Amino acid sequence: MLDQFNVVTRLAVFLFIFAAATDGLAQEASRAADGALAGKRYRVVVSTDIGGTDPDDFQSMVHLLVYSDVLDIEGLISSPFGPGRKQDILDVLDCYDRDYTNLKTYSHQYPTPDALRAITKQGETEIAPHIGVRASTEGSRWLVECARRDDPRPLHVLVWGGIEDLAQALHDAPDILPKLRVYYIGGPNKKWGPNAYQYIADHHSDLWIIEANSTYRGWFTGGDQSGNWGNKEFVRQHIAGHGALGDFFNSKMNSIKMGDTPSVGWLLSGKPEDPSQPGWGGQFVRAWTRPYSRFDRLTTPDDKMEVFGVLELVLPLGSNRPEKPETQLMVENQVIPGHVSDNGTVKFRFCPKAAKTYPFSIRSNVVALDGKTGGIKSVAPAADIALHPSPTLSHWWTDDPAPQFAEREHHGAKTVSRWREDFLGDFAKRMLRCKTPSITETKR
Predict the structure, then answer these.
(1) Mean pLDDT, the chain, as a whole number?
(2) Any idea where the Cellulose-binding Sde182 nucleoside hydrolase-like domain is (predicted)?
(3) Is 210 helix (H, G, I), strand (E, B) or coil?
(4) How far, rounded to the nearest angstrom, does the alpha carbon of residue 19 sit from its chain's CA centroid?
(5) Same domain, 171 and 237
(6) Do 40 and 109 reside in the same domain of the chain?
(7) Which domain holds residue 334?
(8) Dihedral class, residue 267 (left if φ above 0, else alpha if ψ from -120 to 50, else beta)
C-alpha cells in the first residue's frame, strides 16, 4: 500500500513538473509570438549606414520593406561612416516600387513607394568630434519632428550605423528623450562612433536603449544552418529570383548576414516593452556601469579594458609643440584624430569590438608624440557582472554575458539564433509576396 502511495505521489509530482514545464514553454512561445506580427503597431525610425563598407544594411532594408505593412515607418535616415548616402536607401525603394504591385495584394497597409521616399532623409556623414555632437542635420531634425508628434505611442529608433544623429537630436531637443525606445546595433558601429556614444552615456543616461554589441550576431551565427537553413542556401532558394527586392538582396551579398535585422525582429516577435523577455531580436539584461577606461599615459598590452568599452588616452603635448598640433592614433584599420585641449593635452577615444590585444601607434607633428607606440588588451566582461546593474542606467539594456547564451565569443547571440528557423521561415514566406501576387486577391 505504501509503495502504491509512493508511485501515485511520484506520478503526481512528475505530472505537476511536466505541466509546469509545458506551461512555461507555452508562455515563452506566447511571449515570443507577441509584437507586430501579432497585430501590435509600432512607430519606427531607422538610422542606417547603408551603402557604407558593409553590404548587409542593404539586406536589412529589403527585410524591413517586406514587413512594412505591419510597422508604421516614419523615417529612413542615412547616417553612414564612409561613402553611404540617402541615395542608397532610394535605390532599395526603387526595387520596392517594382514589387509594390504584388505586395499590396497581400496587404493594403504597405506604404506607397512615394510615401517612403518622402520620409527618407540625409543624416550626419562624419564621425562626431570629441564633444559628441556637431550640428543638426536633415536626419536629426526629422527625428525630433517625429518624436514630438501627438501620438501616445513611443517612437522606436533602430540604429543600424552611426549614432550621431540620435546624439544630435537629444542635444538639440532633450524633451524628446521620454518618447524614444532605441535599439542600437553597437559593436563595430560603436567602434567608429565612440564620441557620440559617450555623449549619450554622459548626458542622457535616462534614455531607454538596448545596446546590442554582440547579440545581433545570432542572426547569422549559430542555430540550425543545415541544408535549407544555411546562410548561402537560404538566399539561393528563398531570396534570389524573388522579385526586384530579392534579386537586389542577392546582388549585394549572396549569403545571409543582415546584422542589423535583429532590431526589426525585436518588434516583429517578442515583447518590445520588456527586453528581458525572449524574442526574435534577442533577450537582454540591465546594463552595468558602461565601461570607460581613462589613462593619462600611453597604455601597453599589459593594460586591460572591457570589450566594447571606451578607452580614452589623455597625453601631454609637451612645451615644444607647434602652433597647430596635429595627432592621429593608428589602430587596426582606424585613423583616429586627436582632440587638442586647452590644457596642453591631446585626447583619443577608441572602442575595441573584439576581445584581443590592439597595438597602436601615433602619427603627429608633435615631436614628443610622433612615432610613439602602445597597446591595450580587451577582455570579456565577467559572467556575473549582470548581477550588478547600474543604478543610474535604469532603462539601459545590453548583451547577456552568461556563457549559456554565447555563440563562441559572442555574448547573447544564442538568444537570437535559437529562433533561426522561425524568423527565416517567416522571411521566406514574405519574399514570396515579391514574386507573385496573392491568389486570393487575383480571384476577386
Answers:
(1) 92
(2) 43-284
(3) strand
(4) 37
(5) yes
(6) yes
(7) 292-379
(8) alpha
| CB-based contact 109:69 (threshold 8 Å) | yes
Asked if residue 6 is part of any domain, the answer here is no
Q: How confident is the model at residue 54, as a pLDDT?
A: 77
Section 203-218 average pLDDT = 98
Q: How far apart are CA 93 and CA 87, in angstroms?
A: 10
Looking at the structure of the chain, the number of domains it has is 2
Q: What's the pTM?
A: 0.91
Cell of 30: 506566447
Sequence-separated (6 or more) residues with CB below 8 Å from residue 443: none
Domain annotation covers residue 27 = no
Listing DSSP states for 366-408 in one string gives STTTTT-EEEEEEEPPPTTGGGS--TT-TTEEEE---GGG-BT
Q: Based on the domain organization, do 126 and 272 belong to the same domain?
A: yes
Looking at the structure, tell me whether residues 437 and 315 fall in a common domain.
no
Residue 441, pLDDT score:
57
Q: What is the pLDDT of residues 30-57, one digit of tens each?
A: 445 699 999 999 999 999 999 877 789 9
DSSP strand pairing (209-212 vs 396-399): parallel
Distance linking the first and last C-alpha atoms of the chain? 70
Q: Specify whether 417 is located in the same domain as 358.
A: no
Considering the domain architecture, whether residues 345 and 437 belong to the same structural domain is answered as no
Cα radius of gyration (the chain): 24
Reported as a single tens digit per residue, the pLDDT across 51-110 is 877 789 999 999 999 999 999 999 999 998 888 899 999 999 999 999 999 999 999 999
CA separation for the pair 375, 55 (Å, rounded): 30
